[in-house]
Structure formats: structure tokens, C-alpha cells
Amino acid sequence: MLKFVSNKGGGSPVDIETAILAGYAPDGGLYVPEELPQVTSDQLEKWRGLSYKGLAFEILSLYIDRSIVSADDLRTIIDKAYDTFEKEEVIPIPKLQSRDDTYVMELFYGSTLSFKDVGLSFLCNLVDFFLARKKERLSIIVATTGDTGPAAASYIAGKSTLDAWVLYPKGLITEEQERQMTTLHHGNVHPVGVYNCEDGGDDLDLVISSLYANLEFKERVNLSSVNSINWGRIMIQTVHYFYGYLQVADRVREEVSMCVPSGAFGNLCAGGIARKMGLPVKYYIIANNKNECLHRIFSEGVFSKEPIHETVSSAIDILIPMNFWRFLYFCVEKDASKIKMWTEQFESTGKVEFDEETFNSYKQGFLSNSVTDEATLGIIKEIYESESYLLDPHTAVAVAVLNKMRSQIGNHKVICLATAHPSKFPNVMQQALGRDYLPIEATHPSIETAKRKCQKGFTIDHEYLEEGLLDAMSYQWEQSQKDA
Ligand SMILES: Cc1ncc(COP(=O)(O)O)c(C=O)c1O
Fold first, then answer.
1. Could you tell me the residue ranges of all domains in the chain?
2. Each residue's pLDDT tens digit, 36-63
3. Is-above-0.85 flag for pTM?
4. Residue 1 alpha carbon to ligand 1 centre in Å
5. Which of 287, 304, 403, 417 falls 20 to 30 Å from 74 in CA-CA distance?
6. pLDDT tens profile 1-11
7. Arithmetic mean of pLDDT, 133-162
8. Which fold has domain 102-113+232-446?
9. What is the rounded radius of gyration, in angstroms, for the C-alpha atoms of the chain?
10. How far is the CA of 260 from the centre of ligand 1 (A)?
11. Do 4-83+115-230+454-483 and 102-113+232-446 show the same overall fold?
């Protein structure tokens, strides 16, 4: 049976159920599979005609042992996750008319209109399945730069096994994103708006790490997380890379690249792992906004934390791409002692400069670049005016980066991952299009409905967040134990 270990080497190997329910490994590391399952060209050929759900079943079966989740149960969990999606095919992949060989992988047809729905719809249902079987309850905590929080809240809402604590930097996400969390009336959803987050969402992650380190509290309220520190998110996100490739390539082994708007490297960590499993993606192009953390890592070999810039692509205003450490593990021959050394160095000095051999190994097959807000807004307008297709600001970062790099990568098919629906960012859409009204493509019925609902939630200053959460989460936990 495939086991999972910490990328920092602590603790002992665990099964997938334990890895997923725990979130972090006990030593604070990220869970990784002991071996990455390998997929051959023949297998890819056989998978070519599969639907997204069919492919998800095949790929997840490589990681989830049948003795833990039976084939029937896995199919039911997948169906439950994706039957809520707006499009039958789950992830449509249209071709841009105004560009050569450029496709857009629309990952935003889940209930909260971002790619986070693709991972969280499945993961929350899987966690619920495990907990219902064990008759246990978890307190789930996530920090968000605008999209993880709504998706986690939406897929946890109403589940009797889970409480969702969704922390967001007040004023740094859009009103539309905030309402997606605060208008869910379910008693198990607890949005927390946090004032004065100087480093945006990264500030919230630090408080979450501190709560995890408080072992008495962690065990008392059964604390876990479903953000991209959870292996389950990475595993399910490998599926859309396989799906995208197989939909767009005319034959297995055709050169296809993918361009991904990136922040914490959760999405692209899954892409990198998919390639290590055997998916023949030519280049992964890392698209950053002015917060160039990943561009620095992949072009200079330096992992460093710089001051944050607020941009129009706010969901990728991220300073610390924590999933890079998970990917790096597979690039240094699974030498956990190196990951432990580098993460400790980063925690104490705020900077790691990688040696030549490590740099050359992890950057293989990756290109990176960043764009300004001006370029992001410009490409939204240009593509809308030429073909009436509206990019959200994050997808626009990917298309704008591809624009910059097209001549370098050559003529072959490139899929830009479209990570959110434009209706989540109406002000940016108006700014880009230079209008004070929104075109229909920038609206969505669920966004309009949320405006007519009462909002709920906690607010607190960042300075008191840890104390406030200890208090509120303990109270909520006690209540849920009484009700049980
Ligand atoms: C719309 C959108 N695009 C891109 C990203 C970047 O994804 P990741 O943090 O996994 O790199 C995020 C989330 O952070 C997002 O919400």
C-alpha cells in the first residue's frame, strides 16, 4: 500500500486517510507519497477518451488504496463533488480565437467560481467520508487570498462532521469574494475578517502554523486544514493537468505547454508532480504579478520574502510559495534532510540561495516571468475587444506572461489555466474595459444573489487573531460536542 511521509523526514509513514485528515505532518512538514506512481504512454493513450470524472477515478486510484476507499465509494465521492459544477464536462477548454495555438482551461465552474472548487469539492467530500466512517469531527482552518476561503466554506457548509474557520485579510479581497463566505448561513461556517494584515494572506498562514504548534489546542479541537498544505489538494489537482493535456494534444507525446498564474505554488506543484508521473508537458510557464516570489526562485535560484505589492490580481499577492518545498523534495532525490535545512534557514533568515545543482534540477522544464498591472489590464481589454472573451485578472496574468514569452517557447500548443471567473472582480473588469457598467460576461447569477443576503462573521485585528481564535474555536468545539 502506498504510504505518505513528511518532506522534512519526521514521524513515520502513514496511510492516505491519516495524511489527509492530519493536513500537516507531525513535524510541521508536508506529506508526500513515498513513491510517485508512474503512468506510461500506453496508459495515457487509453485514457484519451475519458471524461474528467472518469480520468479523476483512474488517477486517484493510483494514490488511494482500495482497502481504504472502495471503487464504488470513490466513484460516488467524485460524482458528488463534480455533479454540482455548472458544465457537464466540468472543465471546458476553449481555444482563443485571436491567438495561435492558445487554449484556456476554464477551471471556474464550481460553486464559488475559481479553480479552488476543483480541488476542494473533492477533498471536502473525501474528508467527510472518512470522518463519517470514524464518527469523528474536525475543525478545519484555512487562510485565503480570496478564493480558497469561499470554496472551503461552500463545500463544508452543512456537513455534520466539519467546522470551517475561514480567515481572510479584510479589505484585501473583493466584496464579491467576501460575500461568498459571509452569506452562507450554515452553523458550521465561521468566516473571520482580519484587519491590518501587512503581508496579506501570508500573515494569516503564520497564525495558523502557530495554532498547529499548540498541541494541546490542536488535539482538543481536532484541528486540520484543507488548503494546499493538504496532500489531498495536490493529488486531485494533478487530474486537471492530465485532462487538459489529453483534451488538447492530437497524440500522446505531442509538445504541449501550460501557463499557470501562480502564488503559493499549490496548483503548479500538482502540475510538476503530474509531469514526474509521466505526463509529457513541455514547459510549465510560471506566471507571476509584481509579487515575483516564484519568478525569483525559478530564474535566480533564490527563495526570499520581499515586501508585498497590492495588485489587480489580488489572489496571487502571495509572498511565500510553501508548496515549492513539496515539489523540491522530488527534485533532490527525496532528501528530506535538505528540505528541513532549507526551511529552517528560511524561517530564521528569510532567504535561501540554492546551490547550482539544486537550481538546475528543479528548474528543468519550467520557465517563469512576471507582468505589471498595466499589462494585465491591457490584455483583458485587448482580448475582450477582439473576441468578446473576458479573462479574469489572474488568467490575464497568464495570458500576458505567455505573450511575453511566446517567441522563446516556440510554436506549439499552450494551455493557459483560467483560475477564476471575472464576476469575482467587477472593479478590475471596469478598470480594464474603461467602462462604468459591466458586460454580461462579468456577471454571474450567484454573485448577484449573494448581494441580497445578510452577511455574518467575526472580525478581529491581526494583533489579537491567535488569542481570538483560541477563544472562539474552543467555544464552538464545546458547543458541537454538547449537540452531538
Ligand atoms: C484565482 C487564483 N489564481 C491563481 C492562484 C494561485 O494558485 P497557487 O497559490 O496554488 O499558486 C490562486 C490562489 O492562490 C487564485 O485564487
1. 4-83+115-230+454-483, 102-113+232-446
2. 999 999 999 999 999 999 999 999 999 9
3. yes
4. 32
5. 417
6. 999 999 999 99
7. 97
8. Rossmann fold (3.40.50)
9. 21
10. 9
11. yes
What's the CATH number for 4-83+115-230+454-483? 3.40.50.1100
Give the distance (Å) from ligand 1 centre to CA of residue 407: 26
Residues annotated catalytic, as ranges: 116
Q: What is the pLDDT of residues 265-289, one digit of tens each?
A: 999 999 999 999 999 999 999 999 9
Residue 433 near residue 396 (C-beta atoms within 8 A) = no
* Closest atom, ligand 1, to C-alpha of 261: 4
Which atom of ligand 1 is nearest to 145's Cα?
Answer: 14
Ligand 1 proximal residues by C-beta, below 6 Å: 114, 145-147, 228, 261-268, 315-316, 318, 394, 419-420
In this predicted model, what pLDDT tens digit does every residue of 56-96 receive, in sequence order?
999 999 999 999 999 999 999 999 999 999 999 999 999 99
